[in-house]
Write a structure and sequence with these properties.
single chain, 233 residues, alpha/beta, Rossmann fold, nine-stranded mixed sheet, 6 helices, globular
Length: 233
């Protein structure tokens, strides 16, 4: 039985009308890793508990900025437009899945949302708040790696001190680490690139866009394997 993975939608405006979308790369990655998927929209009548009952795992996808009210800070002047319905959906889904002891993977924004869910905070704008020459919001295609990460302890990503080339599409990052979370990878300038505990995994880059490389596909496979173990009990 293939694990059914809930994927969070993101919103957009099409011809002055509210719309929602799912990036094909997430669907392709879940299928390539041995799962299937169900898309979740941030609609007011959704019962997220029902979705958590129906699915075996949750991927909180990339997207825009999180409202800093969730970590008790004012909105930074460089912040993108925050979306209350998207924030609300992500946090409610995480809560519903964790209450059922079902695995959660956060990617990019999703990685940051997990940290905030566990009580952590965010750097709201790397270019103006961090002294670094490393580009965290690349202009290259999404399947191209542009900076390296180093694994800081044996974990789902591999062995301590291994290094890998990753893509990068973010201007925010983890500042204060959430409770119970471990840092398992960092970039060359010390930005937190991956986190985990016994319930969640989080990566700051987009492995779903690099599944042509076995290493990045394996990130998704590790999550799918967690879901399979829960199904098998």
């Amino acid at each position: 039985m293939k694990p059914k993975i809930a994927l969070t939608a993101r919103d957009t405006i099409i011809r002055n009308t509210q719309g929602y979308y799912f990036q094909q790369s997430y669907m392709d990655a879940v299928i390539a890793a041995g799962g299937t998927y169900l898309g979740v929209l941030p609609l007011p009548d959704h019962n997220y508990d029902d979705i958590a009952d129906l699915c075996d795992g949750l991927i909180v996808t990339g997207g825009g900025d999180i409202d800093p009210k969730y970590f008790n800070e004012p909105l930074h002047e460089t912040a993108g437009l925050v979306k209350e319905n998207i924030d609300e959906m992500d946090f409610k889904l995480i809560k519903a899945f964790l209450e059922r002891d079902k695995p959660v993977l956060g990617i990019c924004r999703g990685h940051q949302v997990l940290n905030v869910y566990y009580g952590g905070s965010l750097i709201q704008d790397i270019p103006t708040q961090v002294k670094t020459n490393l580009i965290h919001s690349q202009s290259e295609h999404r399947h191209v790696g542009t900076h390296s990460i180093t694994i800081t302890k044996d974990c789902f990503l591999g062995k301590k001190n291994d290094t890998y080339l990753c893509n990068s599409f973010h201007h925010q990052a983890i500042k204060q680490l959430g409770s119970t979370l471990d840092i398992v990878a960092i970039s060359e300038d010390g930005i937190i690139e991956a986190i985990q505990n016994d319930k969640v995994l989080g990566v700051q880059w987009h492995p779903e866009c690099m599944i042509q490389e076995d290493y990045h596909l394996n990130v998704i496979k590790q999550f799918i394997e967690r879901c399979k173990k829960k199904i098998r009990g």
